[in-house]
Amino acid sequence: MLIKRKRILILIVLLINSCITQFIPATNESQEFLVVEGLITDQPGPYTIKLSKTLPLGIRSTATPVKGSVVTITDDLGSTISLKETDAGTYVTDSAVFSGKTGRSYTLHIYTNSGISRRNYESLPIEMKPVPPIDSVYYEKIEITGNEMWNQNPEGCLVYLDTHDPTNQCNYYRWEFTDTWEFRLPYEVPNNTCWTSSASDEINIKSTASLSEARISKYLLSFISNNSDRLTVKYSILVNQYSINEDEYVYWDKLRNISQQVGGLYDMIPSAISSNVRCISNPDEKVLGYFSVSAKKSRRIFIKDHFYGQANPYTNDACIADTVSYSDYIPNLGSTVWVLIDHFPSYKVITYTRGCADCTTRGTTREPSYWRDDK
Q1: Closest by alpha carbon to 117, among 31, 57, 201?
Q2: pLDDT digits over 22-73, tens only?
Q3: Who's near 89: CB < 8 A, 6+ residues apart?
Q4: How far, in Å, CA of 315 to CA of 319, rounded?
Q5: pLDDT by residue (tens digit) across 240-272?
Q6: Nearest CA among 241, 240, 233 for reference residue 371
Q7: Cβ-Cβ contacts under 8 Å for 8 (sequence gap 6 or more)
């Protein structure tokens, strides 16, 4: 009887698995979408416009650059700025002849010559609104509970921002940041100390339109956990603050909602988010992305503090492979084997992981020009 039940259960499982097929919802979307990414500010250029094309929902594909297009920017005074294609699908302005100015309105024009059918695209005119300076960027230590080490919780870091606009002209804000940190290998190797950087991948926006005062206090920009070595030596974060209009705020808010969702079948897909770029040749064609026009203010802080329980990717267990006599021949030295410890004339400690012996696998040995600005 038990054997018969097992056979029935196996049969049911096989039938269920044989009936699973990929379901791709029917859409009336085009085979390709033009994707526009661009930002001009009131800070010195050059400014970059990136054009690519992507395929609709259900087809796995990476975006491919749109080459050979004619890209220009016009302002409300009738001036026209031509962009030059430097890499495939990347178009840049000449910083010697063009710099954005607050109070001016700018319109992006695109004429595609290849890939996508030859068509004209145009953005809505966007006024560059002024943005106030960032009042302060600061951090707080936080204990990461539930992960106790040696009777003490490891520590992370919360990075906050304060800003306000006394003129009440800027009611919609966007922030992005680049963090840079110094890290050191625990071995006396030639490339022992390096610096590496990472750009933010979170959407940080805030509106003060419904507030009586355009003031933002203790806005959480970033959380740095103990799972990386960012805070082990010295860390820096450069924050850029942008002024945006209400339409762009709505655009970023929708993108943020998508990024926070799991991504179920009936969730909003990116093509449902309206771009501020439209196709003049075919008004029914969808365009993705956004042409941003924003004033910009920046602020940098440094963090050089002790945070308990930070990750160490270069432990002896992770790096040390073997110990050999000093006189032994080491095949493939410098290609698949590296020396970590040189105890002349007795022995050498070796590794098969280059990153344990050479920090340039993650960063650069060139110290950033601003690295000592906090002294």
Answers
A1: 31
A2: 444 444 444 678 999 999 999 999 999 999 987 654 444 467 899 999 999 9
A3: 50, 51, 52, 64, 65, 66, 67
A4: 6
A5: 999 999 999 999 999 888 877 644 444 455 667
A6: 233
A7: none
User: How long, in residues, is the chain?
Assistant: 375
Does the model's pTM come out above 0.70? yes
pLDDT value at residue 19: 44
Exposed (0-12), middle (13-18) or buried (19+): which is 225, by Cβ within 10 Å? middle
The neighbour count for residue 33, using CB atoms within 10 Å, is 22
The pair of three-digit structure tokens given for residue 43, joined into one six-digit string: 């800070």
Please give the Cα distance from 214 to 171 (Å, whole number).
6
Q: Which two tokens stand for residue 25?
A: 């919802």
Which residue is it, tokens 């560059």? 128
* Cβ burial, residue 276 (10 Å; 0-12/13-18/19+): buried
Residue 122 and residue 110 in contact, taking contact as beta carbons nearer than 8 Å? yes
Secondary structure tally for the chain: helices H, strands E: 4, 23
**Kind of pairing between the strands at 234-243 and 204-207:** unpaired
Yes or no: say if 144 and 225 are a contact pair by the CB < 8 Å rule: yes
